[in-house]
Amino acid sequence: MRRLLVYIAALFVAASPAQAAELRVLSGNGAKAAVQELCKQFERATGNTIKLHFEVNADLKKKIEAGEAFDVAVLNPPVIDALIKDGRLIAGSRADIGRSGLGLAVRTGTPKPDISSVDAFKRTLLAAKAVAYPGKGASGLYFVSLLDRLGIKAGMQGKLKPMEAEDTVEVVARGEADMVVVVATRITGVPGVDLVGPIPGELQTKIGFSAGLSASAKEREAAQALIRFLTAPAAGPTLKANGVDPA
């Protein structure tokens, strides 16, 4: 698989300028582990360098609208579409990477609660002292709406712990929350936490991840090559290993 990725990257390089490029990539936190790993592979295979910046989709959208300089954006599909409509991303440049559902994680070494059914999931949430979730992210907004749908929003008051994106899962590793509900890809690679599993299928939603090309990209050819790399079939094993179902 590594050879195949290198081969694909070599094809991209053949169509790119000989001089190595430096790309700036703005990415949401949802697929962080997968994006980091694929970007490292792209760097090794092409000699290009990538400056990665991760933040909540909503905040990155505001920065891009305010004129933030970048070459490639990796965001939720509706955000990519909105930025294309606004002229910040090139029309037709959206490329879907994959998607992931919501998962629940607890601190390593603690018993894994039962979330095998809707009722079990409700009981687990209500029994917790503190449940972390991303305060601004798409998965966090969905989770809050889910509590309403389950009829337990009132019972969860005082237990909910909305977190900044970079600390949503880590707060559980420190023991400051019993569990976290977030897009499962965000749990991948965080030391000190164990994924219990996906939330019940009846309650599940899928968060998508897509890439788009900046309308003002300084390194357009290299940026297009990176987008092709992120969405190539050969990227599938890396995506899957980091919790993303390839598009």
Give a written overview of the molecule.
There is one protein chain. The protein contains nine helices and ten strands. The chain is of the alpha/beta class. The protein has two domains: 2-99 and 208-246, D-Maltodextrin-Binding Protein, domain 2; 101-203, D-Maltodextrin-Binding Protein, domain 2 (3-Layer(aba) Sandwich), CATH 3.40.190.10. Strands 1, 2, 3, 4, 5, 6, 7, 8, 9 and 10 form a ten-stranded mixed beta sheet that branches. β5 (131-134), α6 (138-150) and β6 (160-163) form a beta-alpha-beta unit. α1 (2-14) packs across α2 (32-46) and α1 (2-14) runs antiparallel to α8. Mean pLDDT is 93; it is low at 13-17.
Keywords:
single chain; alpha/beta; D-Maltodextrin-Binding Protein, domain 2; 2 domains; 9 helices
The gist of it:
This protein has 247 residues and is of the alpha/beta class. It is built from nine helices and ten strands.
- CATH fold label of the largest domain: D-Maltodextrin-Binding Protein, domain 2
> Span from first to last CA?
18 Å
Structural class: alpha/beta
Number of domain units: 2
CATH class type of the largest domain: Alpha Beta
- The CATH superfamily of the largest domain bears the name Periplasmic binding protein-like II
Provide the low-confidence segments as ranges.
13-17
Radius of gyration: 19 Å
Number of helices: 9
Q: What is the CATH-assigned architecture of the largest domain?
A: 3-Layer(aba) Sandwich
Nearest-integer average pLDDT: 93
Task: Describe the oligomeric state of these chains in a short phrase.
Answer: single chain
